[in-house]
Amino acid sequence: MSAGLSVPALAQTIHSPGNKLTLSFQLSPSGEPTYQLHFGAKTVVNTSKLGLLLQNQPGLDQGFQVARIDSTVHDATWQPVWGEVKNIRNHYKELAVTLAQPAANGHRMVLRFRLFDDGVGFRYEVPQQPGLTYFVVQDEKTEFNLPANHKAFWIPGDYDSNEYAYTTSRLSEVNTTPIKAIEKKAAPTRIQTPLMLKSDDGLYVNIHEAALVNYSAMMLNVDTKTFGLTSQLVPDATGTGAKAYLQAPEHTPWRTIVVSNKAPEVLASKLILNLNEPSKVTDTGWIKPQKFVGVWWEMQVSKASWNYSDTTNIKLAGTEWNKLKPNGRHGATTANVKRYIDFAAAHHIPGVLVEGWNVGWEDWVGNWKEEVFDFVTPYPDFDVNELQRYAASKGVNIIMHHETSGSVTNYERRQDAAYRFMNEHGYTSVKTGYVGRIIPRGEHHDGQWMVNHYVRTAQKTADSHIMVDMHEPVRPTGLHRTYPNWLACEAARGNEFNAFSEGNLPEHETILPFTRLMGGPMDYTPGIFKLQGYAASAPQRQVHTTLAKQLALYVTMYSPLQMAADLPENYNEHLDAFRFIEDVPVDWDDTRIVAAEPGDYLTIARQAKGKNEWYVGSITDEKARTQTVKLDFLTPGTTYEATIYADGKGASWDKNPTAYQIRKQKVNSKTTLKLQLAAGGGAAVSIKPAGK
Amino acid sequence: MSAGLSVPALAQTIHSPGNKLTLSFQLSPSGEPTYQLHFGAKTVVNTSKLGLLLQNQPGLDQGFQVARIDSTVHDATWQPVWGEVKNIRNHYKELAVTLAQPAANGHRMVLRFRLFDDGVGFRYEVPQQPGLTYFVVQDEKTEFNLPANHKAFWIPGDYDSNEYAYTTSRLSEVNTTPIKAIEKKAAPTRIQTPLMLKSDDGLYVNIHEAALVNYSAMMLNVDTKTFGLTSQLVPDATGTGAKAYLQAPEHTPWRTIVVSNKAPEVLASKLILNLNEPSKVTDTGWIKPQKFVGVWWEMQVSKASWNYSDTTNIKLAGTEWNKLKPNGRHGATTANVKRYIDFAAAHHIPGVLVEGWNVGWEDWVGNWKEEVFDFVTPYPDFDVNELQRYAASKGVNIIMHHETSGSVTNYERRQDAAYRFMNEHGYTSVKTGYVGRIIPRGEHHDGQWMVNHYVRTAQKTADSHIMVDMHEPVRPTGLHRTYPNWLACEAARGNEFNAFSEGNLPEHETILPFTRLMGGPMDYTPGIFKLQGYAASAPQRQVHTTLAKQLALYVTMYSPLQMAADLPENYNEHLDAFRFIEDVPVDWDDTRIVAAEPGDYLTIARQAKGKNEWYVGSITDEKARTQTVKLDFLTPGTTYEATIYADGKGASWDKNPTAYQIRKQKVNSKTTLKLQLAAGGGAAVSIKPAGK
């Protein structure tokens, strides 16, 4: 359909392909764009305004007339390079509203909505047009006016960190003030996306964004009285409040609302992936989802150090590293790395991450220093060539580590040389890190400049056939569809917090899939087996989990890149349990969200890529629970053997975390498994055709 | 000598090696460091305070006691890789005062003074010490309290540009408000260095800095009532007023005061070079001072364009350049570049600069856009390989051009690839440009981050055996001693302003050597022969010079890199005059400042490197003058032939600029040349042994 100018425009209403959702667009009497979203008869979003404010020129937020309306249906199925399912259906109704501002030189903007059965995505598009070529977004005023005081799972709107525990509260109670800021102090009611909401009338609503490219990240300001949310973009370094420097034709990322009356359907949604562009990497044969171990947890628990020496006040260019006095605790020594390579080879783990291999760790963080690392110079006790030879002889890849210390200008200057070094020395993956305040000074982790850096790095690593895992970047928005070599990100509070802080509550891993993981895989680093007494400096510290739950996380916390994070010596104490980590895939043909409730529990079953094997993970919060899993996804008529790794008798995260039991049983498509989860516990199950 | 603690310390007084200057250091009763400088009995600087203020910690500006005093004499002679003289004597008395703050954890700072017969340099040094490792300079409070209301030659304290005409006024009259800002609006009484001053009692005083590395540039705030000057460092992007992020041990640049009762001695001073570090480039055989022509002035006068197409709204990554519609005015075509190569080869000019060869010029400036140029992709009509072959066959080098449009992050990402491209395609020199607002956004051309960029670029080009000429950088501070591949900078108002603006007054080139050139060579681009009717869009415009003066500038405006800036067709009209440009060297064994008065006139004689040949340049402001030159520097007993390129009868910059006469005469060491300079005119003389 198509319509001429109309002031005020009649509401344009579209329905999702299966009629579950209804979206209405309407201009206000003053020409402000607004929308509403309904799930059946229930209101998801009340009338909410849309608009962009521009720096030093009239905003794209009012005075609009409708110039044109286009509506189409799209239905196609595509296959990701790797993922939770083999095929993804992309089925939506699209409404594209072209708006014009007669009083502002006829400036045009397109609002494009894509309405799926499980949610909506919409974005602002500024077409090529006279008088609006280069412009600066001063603010985006996208509203999500919620109809009631929903329960929310939120973290503070820190422009530089996502590494917070989730607070569960009513919207009216959102207050970040008591929460200790990690990087920058957040505003009292500014929170981050993905934001998970639950209404009293049983709707699960998730608000986030898709395809964050060349723009700053969207946070949300909560009106605790009206339950309205308003977008808050991350500003740049100029102090002018500039949010994005754009050149038409250009568009914003998609603003996404996933909605269902069933929590599992939120987790199963592929809406965010569908709103991202197809892969820009054409030859993908070199991209390999993988598990890895690494010289890492021993530093987290202070058994070893990243730094080679305890001499501080180091200058990258002026230090003779081989003259420094070694501290005797350096983790990334040739001998220690070989120990990990041996363990990985013995247990069919393809990767070994090594942190602290390169010079600069003596005083690497907290000084806002530009020249910290060079990414190519090993410490004197790390023999690059010998380890390249040794790893290759064992069929293991060493994973490169590039900690930038937030000094991104320094990293960018050296990226070409660093990736050349990787190619020359057999490294196929890199873990990057952005700990600390960003250089260019004044820029934020989540601002446009850094967003462009992450995307550029994904492209740059792809050009060198390198897979990348980013720590401390902006939280993902589904760009792993476009850059399938961008395997994972951290961008949340990972398992590591159990090593150096008060840790993560048992509920944490039941919330993450509904929040952070909506945008993409997380390198959570599960698999801690020694759950007490691991931190020499804090002997009372423990991980808020049972051992069996750590196994379950390999299924519930989807990632194509999964670390077995604990030390080889701790795994050697429980090699029967480690067998699950050996077995569990990192790439899947199918996924069933069996049961889920954010903050409470989560059970997921997944079919291994190209195999008739299934894996089940089930986790709970601090409450013991029974979870039942109907195995009706198994091939009818086939008998399978299930190996069940469950919490042992008397297990609980706080009193007895390492009690587990492993039992085998024959199952088929008619079996219902009953899994007993301890407090803070979980269960992991592998299901393979019997007799194989 | 050495002394223990003393509060208040007795004044420490030192005399320069030849007793011309006296410097006194003393702590004030509250422990503030102060100094005074005298030239004989005349006061150069009255008691003036010194100090650094630090961010978030006690300043290094008061509460000091003297912990130690060291005094030494240094006398050595060194040879620059290229320059105005063959040998440079570095002769000074040094006073190093170690200060300690008992009330601030014993923090220490060293004030190091080097007193020469022609001035003083001093700097702040923060030694390695407990509790003061990483620190941020919030402000430097260095005072230069002048004893009277001197005449000053000044430009506004713009943090992003030096491209201003000089104002000559009393200090009491300094007011930048009426001056049109080029980049950022300057504060009303903030001016730049090098600042040239002349006292009513006949002292010439120049204030600047030497060895600006890892620090922001120093500007000066003028107290128009007391005639006190106070240092004003350029702030960074954070908005916190941070001026420099430092790590001890570290020191500031040297603050320099050159002083004499004879103006020529200011120009002859090597104080700033002496305060710089020796060359970091060990193999210097590839560094070649040189003259060049180029595809450049034709764009300045709008005969040709940098851009290939007139299509605007270009995106670097998304544009198919060979599908753009050519505008037919593109300067950097293969054919046109060959024309310049032919001219250069015919006239023994080694270099041909080509601007506008690479894609991105369609809308390259003014948009604060990050991805403007890639530095490796030629326009469709510029054949890199063919021109490489052709230039080599003619014995000519093409000079690379890297305009960054101020987008320095983009340039830094691409520098490795750009220099590799240059090495592969036979380019040995690059002219860089920084037009427009800097990215990282919020940083300034003259701030610490950019200062580090320029120095890093000097080192990086040296590593690739590339000579560099920087346009729109911070003004030089003698770093060409340390990086002799850093041949020249613009960083001032060059000849180009005669093409696109109201131009430079005749006095301009008599002031530049006393100001901007104190820090290092300038790529002024002299040699314009067509002085009227060159600018199609402004037919009345003319260069404020005679043709003969343009020749004289090759001697008076020292640079190892000198452009013959006009078009081949304009030179072909005056090939007899062009002969001087062909002959004149760019590297010298000796230099005599024959006569000089800032703003009025300047006569310099120089001996060609390794040859018994001399060249004289003499220029005047808007007044006609007679200048006499005693040729007593010639080898006694030898007869030379002098070729004198002088203003012709009736010549004047405004009425008859191209009237010139060329005459030859025999001269010897007893000859006195009398040069008649027209209004806005000059004279150039080459003197070679007769009969050769």
Automatic annotation (TrEMBL), chains A, B:
Keywords: Calcium, Hydrolase. Residues 587-688 form the Glycosyl-hydrolase 97 C-terminal oligomerisation domain. SUPFAM superfamilies: (Trans)glycosidases (SSF51445). Residues 14-278 form the Glycosyl-hydrolase 97 N-terminal domain. The keyword Calcium applies. GO terms for molecular function: carbohydrate binding; hydrolase activity. It holds the Pfam family GH97_C. Residues 296-492 form the Glycosyl-hydrolase 97 catalytic domain. Its cofactor is Ca(2+). InterPro entries: Aldolase_TIM (IPR013785), GH (IPR017853), GH-type_carb-bd (IPR014718), GH97_C (IPR029483), GH97_catalytic (IPR019563), GH97_N (IPR029486), Glycosyl_hydrolase_97 (IPR052720). Monomer. This is Glycosyl-hydrolase 97 C-terminal, oligomerisation.
